[in-house]
Amino acid sequence: MIERFSTGVDGLDQILCGGLLRGSAYIVQGPPGAGKTILANQFCFFHVRGGGRALYMSLLAESHERMIAYVSALSFYEPSAVPQALQYVSGYGTLERDGLPGLLKLMQHEIKRHRATAVVLDGVFVAQSNTSEGEFRKFVHELQGIANFSDATLVMLTHQSRPSGSPEHTMVDGWLELCDEIKGFRSYRTVQVKKHRGSAMIRGKHPFRITGRGLEVFPRIESTLTEAPMNSPSVARVPTGLRRLDELTGGGFPAASATLMLGPTGAGKTTLGLHFLSRATPEEPAVMLGLYESPVLLQSKARAIGLDVEAACKSGALKILWRPPSENLVDELAWKLVEQARSIKAKRIFVDGVVALRDNLIHAERLPYILNATNAYLRELGATVLYTSEIRDMHSPDVLPTDEVSVIVENVLLLTYLRREQALRRSLSIIKLRESDFDPRATEFHVTDKGLAFGPDPELGEKTAEEL
Q1: How would you class 66 by CB atoms within 10 Å of its CB: exposed for 0-12, middle for 13-18, buried for 19 or more?
Q2: d(CA 330, CA 402)
Q3: 125, 238, 299, 375: which has the highest count of C-beta atoms within 10 A?
Q4: Does residue 285 surpass a pLDDT of 80?
Q5: Is residue 466 classed as helix, strand or coil in its secondary structure?
Q6: Could you give the CA distance from residue 98 to residue 121 in angstroms, rounded to a whole number?
Q7: What are the CA-CA distances from residue 374 to residues 115, 285, 333 (Å)?
């Protein structure tokens, strides 16, 4: 097995199925500002942190001091690594004076002198623009030979967009492309591994961010699923937090299943989800991903119905992940949810806002595949998942929802309004329940200061409701 070097970016290593191969040559291509220089420096600093030695050679007129000034603001930067383990060298003058042969000699000398096992050549387009196609092909071939002979991984950066049949792409071992794209008014970044000789890889485009930690790559979660058999369905039940709903569902939601709760605004979806979370304990904790109410508003809402969310968070029974419904990367949210659930071995998951997830996607048709993959990872943990999704129809729809999202979950609840005695009454109907018999008739409920209660509302002069 050929040794692999981490890129310093966990998500990119996952796409590369372990990282860059030692002794191989790679091209990283992308427009200015796409993140090539940050990725290359991140690779170098991570490499030297693990005991390796790195050489960063630039063909650009920009001084190393200026580049390091930018990079030093990122968390992976380590001042003590420069110049002992990480050496910055300029090849611009040598290329101008001695051409490609002189540049090759300089690289070979510096790699040997520094004993580098990771090498970055920044600005390959400069070498390419000053020579013929044949000379450049020979240059790339000899570069690859130097890397292989030195047993070093070579990463070449270029901003030129060249066709896949170009000599540099056919000759190198790997080819990564960073893109900065626009859809409507929204810009987003993607990375794609187009070639990785001698290794498997996860194909397609994957979103990434540039943050204070450098590049953060989030593989498309549906592309990471394996063909390993899933766990057998459990016959156990997970209490919903509402006694009457437990009765309607035969003891609660099927364990390790996913439930979709559909309903218009104000129907009680979040309130029901809070009841579900209220049964979490430090021994069997829960995670909530919220895209509407902030944690402060959520705690206030829970307090109004007699539930202490703040105490649950302090005890470790509940972890809340919250993001406003702005320009989120849905793959990032899905991975953070899975990682948080893994870290605390969560048994209950509440995702409040499937519509917000859909609206944040660049390609909305991915939503069912993302949820299906997320469910699979959470099911491996034995977690039971509850989703909420907004619908426009305030009353019982003439056609029951059967879209792609409702198909991939095992259970579907419908919360709607009934018009009775010149008032709107909330109702709950079970549309689907995995391998279970259930009563599909609508059951009326209302919201009290002790939470959801099924039955007529006593404040309207009706019979006493059964409080749960």
Answers
A1: exposed
A2: 23
A3: 238
A4: yes
A5: strand
A6: 17
A7: 44, 18, 10
